[in-house]
TrEMBL record:
One term of GO molecular function: metallopeptidase activity
UniProt keyword terms in alphabetical order: Hydrolase, Membrane, Metalloprotease, Protease, Transmembrane, Transmembrane helix
A Pfam family annotated for this UniProt entry: Rce1-like
Location of the CAAX prenyl protease 2/Lysostaphin resistance protein A-like domain: 124-218
Domain of life: Bacteria
Name of the protein in question: CPBP family intramembrane metalloprotease
Organism: Sphingomicrobium clamense
Transmembrane residue ranges: 12-30, 50-71, 83-105, 125-143, 155-174, 186-203, 210-231, 243-264
Entry annotated with the keyword Plastid: no
Length: 278
């Protein structure tokens, strides 16, 4: 059976992504407010009650990787290339800086962090983003990226898996989020997928991407509360220049493309120094 799925790796990868889309969408179809009819729902909200469901999704997709026999190839259990980890530092620093801005503004506005911590919201939100990160990175940078890579190579696999990752977020429109807000989330997720996928290729591991993904989601959700805005990024008007504002808003695909170039160069070097069997 494993050989069957390997021979049809691209179809398997796309089929599994569509299966999980159906799993996520099915419970939302007949709820009140479905299909954009919950105007108050935004991409920055974290449904904390969804934590058990996300734990189940993360466990199921990890189990599926092992059932397919792709655990190593899908970069779930493979040994990371430590030299590639430096590429994850820049997006981590930028995202951490955005989170620090939120906390700095909150401190200036005398927000009571003690009350917030005692409520349990930050702890539950952190757990939620970790399991969301595990689920989505295993699915898209593990199964989808590897399945498509076998068929079409790393570059096309990266682009297609990022597209699938973006499209998956239309499930939030089914769940009641406005179509305009979902469009923005889909575009951002698709572009962010370039970063996560490139890091997975360069480090040969999905786990740096899991960390960055969880950090980003936590930053966006936290800043939405701390700053009282609908974005995890500073407003464009507040930037000192349009160029800097563009770089801050789109640093993920920019860095992702640089990492992809680094990966392709690294792959060529590895091919040159690897001896050819006699």
């Amino acid at each position: 059976m494993r050989q069957f799925f390997r021979k049809r790796s691209a179809a398997t990868a796309i089929g599994i992504a569509l299966l999980y889309f159906a799993i996520l969408a099915a419970p939302l179809l007949f709820q009140s407010g479905a299909f954009g009819n919950k105007p108050g729902k935004s991409p920055q909200q974290l449904p904390l009650g969804q934590l058990p469901f996300e734990v189940g999704l993360a466990a199921s997709v990890l189990a599926l990787v092992f059932l397919l026999g792709w655990a190593r190839e899908a970069r779930v259990t493979s040994r990371p290339i430590w030299s590639g980890l430096r590429w994850a530092l820049v997006p981590a620093i930028i995202t951490g800086g955005l989170l620090a801005i939120g906390f700095a503004v909150a401190i200036e506005n005398d927000v009571s962090f003690g009350v917030l911590w005692e409520s349990g919201i930050p702890q539950n939100a952190l757990l939620l983003v970790i399991f969301v990160g595990i689920f989505e990175e295993t699915l898209f940078r593990g199964i989808a990226l590897r399945g498509l890579e076998i068929k079409w190579g790393p570059v096309i696999a990266l682009l297609v898996s990022s597209f699938l990752f973006g499209i998956m977020h239309y499930v939030n429109f089914i769940g009641g989020q406005t179509l305009a807000g979902t469009h923005q989330q889909v575009i951002h997720a698709g572009l962010a997928g370039i970063l996560y996928g490139a890091i997975a290729l360069r480090t040969r591991s999905i786990w740096p991407g899991v960390f960055l993904h969880a950090l980003w989601d936590f930053t966006v959700a936290s800043n939405a509360v701390l700053l009282g805005v609908n974005t995890g990024l500073p407003d464009e008007a507040s930037g000192p220049s349009p160029v800097l504002s563009f770089a801050v808003h789109y640093f993920e695909p920019i860095i992702g493309i640089l990492i992809l170039i680094s990966f392709l160069r690294w792959s060529k070097r590895q091919a040159r120094i690897t001896p050819t069997p006699a």
